[in-house]
Amino acid sequence: MALSEIELINNFKNGDEPAFNELVLKYDKSVLSLALKYVQNRDDAKDIYQEVFLRVYRGLKNFQFKSEFSTWLYRITVNVCLTFLRSGKKKSMLSLDDEENSEPLHNITSGSDNPDDDFLRNEFKDNLNDALEKLSPKQKMIFILKHYEGYKIREISQMLNSSEGTIKKYLFEANHKLRGYLNELYV
Amino acid sequence: MNHKKYKEWIELFFLDELNEKEKSELQNHLNDCNECSAEFEKQKKFYSLIEKTQLPEPDEKLLSEARRELTAALRVEKNKQQSFSFPRFNLNEFFFSPARLAFGGIAVLALGILLGFLLFNKTEKVIALNEDENQYTFPEEAARITNVRFIDSDPSDGEIEFTVDAVKSLQIKGKVTDPEIQNILTHSILFEDNPGVRLNALNLINTNALKNNDEEIKAALINVAKYDSNLGVRREALKLLRTFSFDSDVREALLYILLNDDNSSMRIEAISSLKEAGERGNGFNQKEISAFKEKYSKEENDYIKYQIKTALQENINNEK
Fold it and tell me: Would you state the pLDDT for residue B141?
């Protein structure tokens, strides 16, 4: 029977190293997913993934269960992403023609029988990527957490340790900027 | 009319952050207000475009690479945690400021010679620290010092700070079937830096520990077979894993290796194990069948393709 998260954390605190691996496997795909969406570069996403779990490894022994483990983990992920972008470590954006990117363009965008629709959607995606780059790191993160990871404003506020009002403000600003940027083309 | 409030609510509506009562109030307002209705339509177009556009998701290859790299990084981290930081040597109390710089320089030099001696002397002299900040002593038995990393090498204030790795050898003797020994071996296959050591530990587990069919060893072997960066180590772990009963953990690990391992010999080993299990009456579940089919369409190695195809055919025959 699978151990609960609390049991895994306590076991790790008592020196059971494999318990940490189980925790990693439980959450690592979503950490990598957020990182990839945020930096849009596979190598950068891997760097962030690694840094997040190293920080978790270092900090888990002192984890006091004051928040959910997942909230703590995503808070670390968000912080590492934000720091990563500020630190200038970022490599180039994910190229849609990049051979390394094994997920082809037609899979990234929703498929359609109409080539015109696909073309417009792909064009929009390129423009959206450009527009996302114009947001501040925090605006971009909040936008992705809300629109592409499906979190509620309340959950994002816990992750970022900010009030719901502040998150709303960032989100509205991000939406406003994006609409402004994309307005002439699409709206 | 409070357009500002309703314009905010329009945003919140598309963000799915309004409750039913608010939605209804907004709807009533939109029915009466052209300005807000126009805003609603504008935002609707924008959000429908956003909804239709997906950002990249990590594929299994990326996830697998990230996991392997993390395993290696955790190994390094584990070793690092055995190091400790020397306390700051507070020389301020001993020197007047005009002489501080010169004496600081001498202190660094002396320390360098000392560490050089400790590092390269074959008799492995060791150093241990006294809790008192201003003293350090060299007892007869302590740890070997390696990997000196200066945090503050500027002696101008009379102080320097650095960390070292203090490695202490322990000689352990015991029965290979002893749970403590097995724990150390399991730990070694997961966290030892040197792949040769990991391989040795696997061999020891191979000959001695498997009789117990221990769950922890199985979990460690699965981890190593899936994520170890060294092919030889992965292969040995997979070989050992095949001696375990074919339960859901092992099945899942074999399937993961078949789908994700870069090396064809690992994939061959994985599909062979899955096939053997199928022949022993362990039919494939729907998830495995779908994965086989998907892998069949992507696999470049003809032999593996053939094995997948026959595994699927045999599964159909067994079900009849």
Answer: 53
